[in-house]
Amino acid sequence: MVGFLLLMRHPLLLLACLCPLMAIAQNQPKKEKPLAPGGKWHANDPLRPRPRVVTPPTGQTPPSDATIIFDGKSLAGWKRDPRKSDPAGKDADAALWTVKDGYFECSPKSGSLRTRQKYAGDQQWHIEWATPVEVKGNGQGRGNSGVFIGGFPEIQVLDSYQNDTYPDGQAAGLYGFYPPMVNASRKPGEWQTYDIIVERQKRDSSGKVIKKARLTVIHNGIVVHLGREFDTAAQESDLQLQDHSNPVRYRNIWVRKLNLDDPDAEGTPPPANK
Ligand code: MG
Q1: Taking the CB of the first residue and of the last residue of the chain, which one, N or C, has fewer CB atoms within 10 A?
Q2: CA 258 to ligand 1 center in whole angstroms
Q3: How many CA atoms lie within 13 A of 33 on its CB side?
Q4: Centre of ligand 1 from the C-alpha of residue 25, in Å
């Protein structure tokens, strides 16, 4: 008790007693933290690559690492499937939809459009669309178009605002497979968004499927499909937009490649002082 009181009254004496203990503690081998999922890094590892910086989207400006599929001005990156009755020639597959004020609009019966490029791997797509302000028709005949990503069913585009139809054919339905979980449709003429996550089928080295292809769809910020599984083995595809004879509009289309298997591989080194 006397010793304790002495130490408390003389901080320097206390420090002299503690220093050897601290030195011993510092020389003890550090207990390694458990391995994080993936087995390459430990939990809280300061040497782990930093996630690369991406400027997020703002309004009509895509994120900084996106591939822009439609820039608001030109359909140069798009083509249509020529019909047998079309005249031959170098422009036989030219996209015939109308570009105006930053969007493009389906010219009814001019043919569906598809991108000239194909896009491989796991992806995040962003697509904005609007059905006509002037409401005509009903059911499948009102503002019908559609988004096709190879290997997956049509992601239906339709005016589903107070417009009844069969559920797996309404807006954001995976046509013929799944209705959306909810109807998140905006009014005719208002811009709507699809954010789509594509996960490709994965196989092991023996060729056995270890993960089915999956599709996630977010409609106007609302999750309507989460990880729907499909048997497709497609590893790449173009993007197709359907001509269903209705003047549906599209704008601000972009895609980002996702590295779901090893995002650390595209990270940046930690700061030098780490
Ligand atoms: Mg359709």
Answers
A1: N
A2: 27
A3: 9
A4: 68
Q: Any idea where the domains of the chain sit in the sequence?
A: 67-258
Q: Report CA(79)–ligand 1 centroid distance (Å).
A: 18
Candidates 2.60.40.4070, 3.40.50.150, 2.60.120.560, 3.40.1190.20; correct CATH number of 67-258? 2.60.120.560
Tokens 């972009």 locate to 254
Residue type, 17: C
Question: What's the distance, CA 228 to chain centroid?
Answer: 14
Cα of 164 from ligand 1 centre, angstroms? 15
Ligand 1 centroid, distance to 147 Cα (angstroms): 8
Q: How far is the CA of 43 from the centre of ligand 1 (A)?
A: 47
What residue type is assigned to position 26 of the chain?
Q
Q: What is the pLDDT along the chain (274 residues), one digit of tens a residue?
A: 555 555 556 655 555 555 555 555 556 656 789 999 888 999 999 999 999 999 999 999 999 999 999 989 999 999 998 776 776 676 789 999 999 999 999 999 999 999 999 999 999 999 999 999 999 999 999 999 999 999 999 999 999 999 999 999 999 999 999 999 999 999 999 999 999 999 999 999 999 999 999 999 999 999 999 999 999 999 999 999 999 999 999 999 999 999 999 999 999 999 988 7
Q: pTM to 2 decimals?
A: 0.87
